[in-house]
Design a protein that fits this description.
With 569 residues, this protein is an alpha+beta fold. The chain has 16 helices and 18 strands. It comes from Dekkera bruxellensis.
Length: 569
């Protein structure tokens, strides 16, 4: 599979062959660009790029329908500037024309250089087929194109990093980084690697450039994450990559510089992850709720789905193979796929056996005592029941689906205040508004279209930590004042009023999905117990999480008749 340059522009994902080379100045323009439909607003800031890289489009003869103006094969390259959230490093927006004699310039000078030094531009037609056309651009039009480019990355499918620490792994990492960031020079010894902890499935490396070269408008620290063994069974890596690009276009995620064969290279956010007991801190949870509310209102599912469709079509064509099976398109289909590959695990079978009176497949049977059931049969029927019972009770959003403490980053200033006051103590009152919200969400492996109440409920279940202390989970009832404050922050948006009825309705909605996270992660952990090499008791964790589902179902069947749920039939 060839290396590829992935560009998110005008709400769509586009692809160009990638070649790392210093080459003649050129600009990239699209003839079909219209109004920016991603919802991104220019904040006057930008995410730093690997700014002196030459993102070269391979020789024009390699692109269908492209004919060079003379017999010599020209290499075209371009750099686009992506926007950044307030807490990310501030840089000046720029477009750089790359050549063997020059590396970067300001917007005005480089745009003029691109137009004057290149007779041909790469342009996209209505069908997204790129072709060479005579340049009639002016420098403002090139600058406008940069404005419409929301996010971008390179894809290096043939690059692989060993998942375990070794001298060979370090060599692989450093060589790949120098390819992605040629402005770091060519001395591998200037790259410092530090392994981070916090996740339970992947390896995470912090990579810092320590050399003497002046890295102008670029990153000196990035993260590399390699995928855990067997996680491809559980995680759609194409979806993760596209989701990250789209989130970056909304200024809700750091820049993703590159995707390689078994991982990602992306921007480093200064700060630290929360501890699980800080999730309920009254000075912290309003920020989390507000950020999640902004996320659910802003990120458009259809932008991700269309980008994913284009990516799969692009690489299916390049590999000249058919897609072997349909990938899940929402959280319900994902869980169904997990159940299909779940083995007959004794611990999970025992948990289900203790709740035979709640098993839907037995409740449907005329003689429940006489039937013999497999784990897959039991859980498949429970999923069908769940979907039919509450499937339409919450709006579908681009759900993060893994909002545990380790995936929530706070800045150093807030961290110091929490440490000084005590992690569970309230600190100074702050004005809550998403433009100044210091919270950042990371790790988008499990992003998937799903009910917003599932995403919220899943976060609340994470308050218990990996030790599964159920007493820490907030009760989803209208009289819970903490939950009412959380929901107020979630619902609050500029220029709107949050009413008591809105809060009541959201709490009822959340309560309907309180059992789904346990069902979801119980199945996930069951699969992990058979494939993961990580020293973690996935089997025991699986059973504890599935118990949450059965306990919720017992509560729900009892409450269903006495509580008036607007969405229930």
């Amino acid at each position: 599979m060839p290396s590829t340059y992935c560009l998110l522009s005008n709400g769509g994902l586009h692809f160009l062959p990638y070649h790392n080379s210093n080459s003649t100045d050129i600009s990239l323009t699209r003839s079909d660009i219209g109004e920016n439909t991603t919802g991104t607003k220019d904040s006057g800031q930008s995410m730093p790029l690997p700014s002196q890289s030459a993102f070269g489009i391979a020789s024009s003869s390699s692109l269908p329908g492209m004919v060079p103006k003379d017999s010599s094969s020209r290499i075209f390259s371009t750099i686009f500037t992506s926007k950044a959230r307030n807490q990310y490093p501030q840089q000046t927006s720029s477009i750089m024309g790359i050549s063997s004699n020059s590396v970067a310039s300001t917007v005005s000078s480089s745009c003029q250089s691109c137009v004057s030094n290149a007779d041909w531009l790469v342009s996209g037609g209505k069908q997204d087929d790129y072709s060479l056309s005579k340049s009639r651009s002016t420098s403002p039009s090139v600058a406008k194109e940069v404005e419409k480019c929301c996010a971008h990355s390179i894809y290096l499918p043939d690059r692989y990093i060993e998942p375990t620490e070794s001298s060979n792994q370090k060599l692989q990492v450093r060589q790949m980084l120098l390819e992605i960031f040629p402005e770091w020079g060519n001395n591998e010894d200037f790259i410092e690697l530090h392994e981070l902890t916090g996740g339970i499935t992947n390896m995470l490396l912090k990579c810092t450039y320590k050399g003497p070269e002046n890295v102008q408008n670029g990153y000196k620290t990035v993260l590399i994450r390699t995928y855990g063994r067997g996680t491809g069974l559980l995680i759609d890596r194409d979806r993760e990559f596209v989701s990250h690009l789209v989130l970056n276009s909304y200024n809700l995620a750091p820049k993703v510089f590159a995707r390689f064969g078994n991982g990602l290279v992306y921007g480093f956010i200064e700060g630290r992850a929360l501890h699980f007991d800080e999730l309920s801190n009254p000075s912290v949870y309003p920020f989390i709720a507000s950020r999640l509310g902004q996320w659910h209102r802003t990120v458009r599912v259809k932008v991700i789905e269309e980008g994913l469709r284009r990516m799969r079509l692009e690489f299916r064509q390049s590999e000249k193979v058919e897609v072997s099976k349909k990938r899940p398109g929402n959280i319900w289909e994902l869980i169904k796929g997990w159940i299909d590959i779940l083995p007959q695990i004794k611990g999970l079978v025992a948990v289900c056996d203790k709740n035979q009176d709640l098993q839907q497949v037995r409740m449907d049977a005329k003689d429940p005592e006489s039937i013999q059931l497999t784990l897959k049969q039991i859980l498949s029927r429970e999923l069908e029941w769940l979907a039919s019972e509450i499937g339409d009770c919450s709006p579908q959003v681009a759900a993060h689906s893994d909002l545990l403490c380790g995936n929530i980053i706070i800045p150093s200033e807030l961290s110091r205040e929490l440490e000084e006051a005590g992690r569970n103590s309230k600190i100074s009152t702050r004005h809550l508004h998403f433009d100044t919200n210091p919270i950042a969400f990371i790790d988008y492996e499990y992003m998937m279209p799903g009910p917003r109440a599932f995403d919220i409920s899943n976060h609340f279940q994470e308050w218990q930590g990996f030790a599964c202390d159920k007493s820490l989970i907030p009760k989803p009832v209208r009289t819970n004042q903490l939950l009412r404050k959380w929901c107020t922050s979630y619902l609050q948006k500029e220029g709107s009023e949050v009413t008591e009825v809105m809060i009541d309705d959201l709490i009822d909605e959340i309560s309907l999905y309180y059992g789904m996270p346990g069902f979801y992660w119980g199945i996930w952990a069951g699969i992990q117990s058979t494939i993961s090499l990580i020293d973690f008791d996935y089997g025991g964790y699986s059973g504890q999480r599935l118990v949450e589902y059965w306990n919720w179902k017992r509560w729900y069947l009892k409450e269903k008749g006495s509580r008036l749920y607007k969405c229930l039939k």
